[in-house]
Design a protein that fits this description.
Rossmann fold, about 40% helix, NAD(P)-bd_dom_sf, globular, PRISE-like_Rossmann-fold, alpha/beta, NAD-dependent epimerase/dehydratase, seven-stranded parallel β-sheet, 2 domains
């Protein structure tokens, strides 16, 4: 039996990957600071920033595959580089004696091509983004994590893969950095108040082509690359495989919730500046409909969705490399959102 160590197992990537691997017969260990939320995962708890704690919890663990999908946000990219590069270093230091380690997969993202938060989109690669695009100048914790991965693979003799999703949409209990859940909460607030469902992003995002990544497709891609020779020592973009414009998708999302769609106003209206009353409003909605979560911060992240929708440049990722080497799965993007909304309703996260 193959044994996976998922670092960041309680996040949106980790939860969906754990569920897939368990269905496919893997033994799954989950390393995180919090309580495991996927049944069947053997939990390992440590602060990933604490090298000694990580080393202690990983001592003697015989794993065949490592999946790294953890990061901690800081105010500056210098801090992000130090902390998030350190997380990867701590994991591989803790696994130094793992004799059967075959492959390590690192999940990063489209900031590979757009730059870090503090200079996000100010300089960018040409679209469609391709994996062989040179790195942008300056600090980027994705680059640091990659370099740590490459050095560990050379030192310890395992194969590696890097996975670069775009905006991730999918179900994750207690993980709010999810555009799909955030938009579901926003639409519910609009419906309850009778307000229009106003696109909170830029005119450029409203009109330009873009793409997203379904968390289930990303989980499939991670398993595929880690168990196929074609995925060894390669970096891959991972998106659904279709492209869309928000001006096309937004009315469909609005129709699902029965709200009136509106495009971006002349001056864009980010969610973070408009959701000051959301905590109390959501408590009232949760009480009215007997929802499972009354804390809006556990199901929505205004800043995260604002960042994705507020960009003023086109963001399209090329999937040709994966297709050429055998990964041909595809996910319909509207279905990514509607499947998530259906499950949020079924689990009483949003009203039915």
């Amino acid at each position: 039996m193959q044994t996976a160590l998922i670092v960041g197992s309680t996040g949106i990537v980790g939860q969906n990957l754990a569920q897939r691997l368990l269905r496919n017969g893997w033994n799954v260990l989950g390393l995180s600071r919090g309580k495991q939320v996927v049944d069947g995962v053997q939990g390992l708890s440590a602060d990933l920033r604490d090298a000694a704690a990580v080393r202690e919890v990983l001592r003697g663990q015989d794993v065949s595959h490592v999946f790294l999908s953890a990061w901690i946000r800081h105010e500056t990219e210098a801090e992000n580089v130090k902390v998030n590069g350190g997380i990867v270093e701590n994991v591989f230091d803790g696994l130094e004696g793992a004799k059967n380690l075959k492959h390590a997969a690192l999940v990063t993202g489209t900031k590979q091509y757009l730059g870090p938060f503090e200079s996000y989109g100010q300089t960018a690669a040409e679209t469609p983004f391709r994996e062989d695009t040179p790195r942008l100048p300056g600090l980027n914790f994705y680059y640091t994590q990659e370099d740590v991965l490459y050095a560990a693979a050379e030192r310890m003799g395992f194969g590696w893969s890097v996975h670069r999703p775009h905006t991730i949409v999918g179900y994750a209990v207690g993980n709010a950095m999810n555009m799909g859940s955030t938009l579901a909460v926003y639409a519910t607030l609009c419906r309850e108040s009778g307000e229009s469902f106003i696109f909170p992003g830029s005119h450029e995002q409203w009109n330009a082509l873009t793409d997203v990544t379904d968390a289930r497709l990303l989980a499939e891609h991670l398993e595929w690359a880690s168990t196929r020779s074609a995925g060894r020592d390669e970096a891959f973009n991972v998106v659904n495989g279709d492209v869309f414009r928000w001006r096309w998708l937004w009315p469909q999302l609005a129709a699902y919730f029965g709200v009136k769609p509106e495009g971006p106003p002349a001056e864009i209206a980010p969610l973070e500046g408009r959701m000051g009353e959301a905590p109390e409003d959501w408590k009232a909605i949760a009480s009215k409909y007997d929802l499972a979560e009354s804390d809006v911060t556990r199901v929505a992240s205004w800043w995260h969705t604002d960042g994705d929708l507020g960009r003023k440049i086109e963001c399209v990722n090329d999937m040709s490399k994966s297709r050429r080497v055998g990964f041909v799965s595809h996910q319909d993007t509207p279905a990514s959102f509607f499947d998530l909304f259906d499950r949020l309703k079924a689990d009483q996260i949003i009203p039915g």
